[in-house]
Amino acid sequence: MLEPAYQADVVIVGAGVAGLSAAHRLTSAGVTTAVLEAAHDVGGRMSTEKVDGFRLDRIGQLLSTAYPELRLTPGLDGLVLRPFAPGVLLHSDGRHHRAGATPAHTGSVVGGALRSTRSARGALHAVRALASAPRPAPRPTALPRGGTAPLGTAVDQARLGAALARIASAPVERLLARPELPAARGLAARGLPARTIDGFLRPLLAALLCDPELTTSSRCADLALRSFASGRLCVPEGGAEALPELLARSLPPGTVHTGVRVTSVSTNTVTTAEHGEFRCRAVLLATDARAAAELLPGLRVPDFHQVTVVHHTTDEPPATGTALLLDADRGGPVAHTAVVSQVDPSRAPAGRALISSTVLGPPPPDVETAVRMHLARLYGTSTTRWETLAVHHTPEAVPTMRAPHDLRRPVRLLAGLYVCGDHRDTSTVQGALHSAHRATTAILTDLGARGSMHRADPLPASRAA
Q1: Cα 38 from Cα 36, distance rounded (Å)
Q2: Of 118, 326, 394, 410, which cross-links 122 as Cys (Cβ 3.0–4.6 Å)?
Q3: 13: which strand partners?
Q4: Residues 27, 32, 38, 40: what is their CA dihedral angle, to the nearest 10 degrees?
Q5: Does residue 96 have a pLDDT over 70?
């Protein structure tokens, strides 16, 4: 019998970071691949708006130089990561407290991306320094000296340092084997006092997981703390969109097709609104959780964390340098904020500062006014002359990971039909990339017994008038 004609071996639905990274792994293995994206741009939630020379992220998820998939994913060799100052800056009782010290590692640029090299002893030293007494701020006129960092007593700080040291050095498999509780209960069960949890770990995990109530699985929280203790928080140079755009540009020409709406899928066919049927050997759904469930009824749709990002500009930036500023007091809507243009100068025109602030959960009625007032207290300066550039609200920004949470949800639904994304792993860029890694491994295993690969046919012409 003649083999039926295929447009590609694998059709990937969705051109976010999961779908694009999966396309790289498949094409690198000689599998012809077509990526179909309904929007007119790649990236999904990792998008960046351009306004008068500013680059404004819609969600602004934080990355870590310790994310393994940033090093393992093909196509990301040219990614440039801009790190925040080591540790974080905590606002508590009207003062700034530096929680962290310069890590005992060296950062080098390999292929354009920031890499971290450290010994086990150096990692332990860095984690212990994190719980040490606060350092004076770089500019004491703006950052008051004195006071005790919101980490508790010296004994409390020692317990925190020991806990983070264990997490930093523990294999991932050991962390995933721990008993699972909501993060707040899991941290308390390890002997950490409420002041340390509320004054440091809660605002930190809120920034990392978008979950200020700490309902996230303790295993997911451990993974987030492990990345924090082992690497540096960072953002991609040029905005969040830099990561998916880099992946898309480095794929073979004709792989990615935007503006193509998929209406149904099966194990060997993808039906589109404008281009009819697209025949293939396997289908990988790499959309967000809700879009995946619309194409495959029965897939679980998680709850989501709401995220609002407010961008301001001024010609007189606050004196926090490249620090990530967290509100330990929870005295307003802002969970964390930073002068992002100090971290990544490409995000603002010369002579202007870009301040990006994140609100978690449902925003207050007049979110811009509430954020402006809160930022005045957090930075200790007037914000009346700050210009608002954009307010981005995303109601389904980050999938929740409440306990119990399966960090390795199946990616192989059946032979020929697969799914990946941050809703199948952890709700982070690392999780999205790792789920794509798992999905492509399953696809290559299944296709390996089904004959050699072939050259892809062109996308069918649009039927629209």
Answers
A1: 7
A2: 118
A3: 36, 285
A4: 60
A5: yes
Neighbours of 133 (CB within 10 A): 13
**Tens-digit pLDDT profile for residues 195-230:** 899 999 999 999 999 999 999 999 999 999 999 999
The architecture that CATH gives domain 54-72+83-237+309-399 is Alpha-Beta Complex (3.90)
**Among 397, 389, 77, 113, CA closest to 236:** 113
Angle value at C-alpha 263, between 260 and 265, nearest 5 degrees: 105
Residues 81-98 as b/e (b if ≥16 CB within 10 A, e otherwise) read bbbbbbbbbbbbeebbbb
pTM, two decimal places: 0.87
Phi then psi dihedrals of residue 18, to 5 deg: -65, -50
Q: Which residue is it, tokens 């995990």?
A: 205
Asked whether this chain's domains 8-47+241-303+403-447 and 54-72+83-237+309-399 adopt the same fold, the reply is no
Residue corresponding to tokens 């999205």? 432
According to DSSP, residue 461 is labeled: P
- Considering the four listed CATH numbers 3.40.50.10300, 3.50.50.60, 3.40.50.300, 3.30.457.10, the one that applies to the domain covering 8-47+241-303+403-447 is 3.50.50.60
Sorted by where each begins, the domain ranges of the chain are: 8-47+241-303+403-447, 54-72+83-237+309-399
Residue 8: name the closest of 273, 361, 282 by CA: 282
- In the block, tokens 């991609």 appear at 236
Record the tokens describing residue 452, joined without a space: 């050699």
Residue 53: partners with Cβ closer than 8 Å, 6 or more residues away:
348, 349, 352
Q: How many Cα neighbours within 13 Å face the side chain of 49?
A: 15
CA-to-CA separations, 258 to 41, 42, 62, 106, in angstroms, rounded? 6, 7, 27, 40
Give per-residue pLDDT as tens, 65-76: 999 999 999 999
The CA distance from 239 to 284, in Å, is 27
CA distance 92 to 125: 25
